[in-house]
Structure formats: C-alpha cells, structure tokens
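# nightly structure sweep
# worker-07 picked up a monomer target from the shared queue
# config: single-sequence mode, recycle default, output format = structure tokens
# input follows
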Amino acid sequence: MESTVGTITAARATALSLESVSRRHGRRGGGEVVALDGVSCTVPAGSFTAVVGPSGSGKSTFLQCAAGLDRPTSGTVRVAGTDLGALSEAALTRLRRDRIGFVFQSHALNLVPSLTIEENVVLPLVLGGADPADGRVLDRGRKLLDRVGLAGHGGRGPATLSGGQQQRVAVARALVTEPDVIFADEPTASLDPESATLVLDLLRDAVRTEGRTVVMVTHDPAAAGRADTVLTMDGGRLR
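# output follows
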C-alpha cells in the first residue's frame, strides 16, 4: 500500500483526474461551507484507490464530484479524458450509466426491489437501449452472478438476499457495462467481516483480472489496506 499527497504517478492511462476542484455550499443565515478546497489528483487506470478521512473531511463530496453526481463550484473533473463540466445533464447521465459503475453503502440505493436479481444486474444495459430478452444480455448477467458467487439466484428478489449478497449483486451490476471507473461509497460499512471481505475481494479482483479502476470511500482501515493507494482527506483538502 502506498500513501500519496496530491498526485498518483503511474505510466498508465489516467482513469480519473481532478484539477483544483472546490465545492462550496451556502449556509442558512449567510456564509458558506467549503466541502472541497482546491483538490487535485490523478488516478491511473487499472488501480484501486481508497479515500479516507474523518467525518466531515470532504471524502463523500470528493466521490460525488468525481463521479458526476454533483457539480463542483470550480475546477475540472475528467473521467477517462472526458471533462464532466462540459457535458449537458443528459450527456452526464449517459456517461454515468455507460462508463461509471456504482456500489453504494445503502442496499436501498444499490438495487431496485421490484426487479429480480438478474434484472438488477443488467439494468444499466437495458437503460442504454439493450433488449432485456437478448441472449447476450442475459448471458452477461448470468456470468457476472456466477462470478460473484450467486449463480442460480437470478430469479429471486433482492429482499430474499442477505446484506452481503445484495452488495455482491451491486458489484456485479457495477461491472456489467465494463466501466472506466467504479466508485464505491462505504461498500462494507453495514456488513459483517466475512461479507465485507468477499465484497473487497470482488473489487480487488476486478482491478487485477480486468484492469478496472476502483475508487472507494471508506472509514475502515482494513478496507483501505486492500487498496494500492490511499488518499487522505482533511478539511476538504488532500494531505
């Protein structure tokens, strides 16, 4: 594991870059809160980066801006060379759907309860225009369920699975579009140690075997220890 301040250097393509990114929020009664303060970093493709820091340090805002879920007040965010600030809302939505994978802490955010497990996994493909009855789509979903240890569970609903199993389905869905970056927001926070290890193994394996890029926000030192590089946030800045 390697610690860094500011820039992660590597002779590889850049999957994610932030240049002087700040995010300020207005406060009732006047004034503002600076959640991010001039953050700059680059994340090489095919790497696993953990973002850590105390509560209120800015790590969640870092993820939201980096993933295009929130627009920074100033600065530039690029995913695989694409400037997110130059995109319309519709184009940004398409980029998040097609080129970014998400694994959230909340199971309610990860999976759609009215869909089967298999339908949840292939949902990004269907939203992108794929036919859910297409054999190639179905095969992709089944292969990913097998990969995360849930072969034969595709017809079940999310509510029938444990929290750890639901997180593994979320990892499968994050991988289905072969994204440029997978963002994981406290993916092990509500899991028992065994389930947490399984989820981290899956994320680590996606980097090792497929060359995926994972950026994970976590408060867990053990989870951060699985990353190649650790970025530490404090007061909205990297240190």
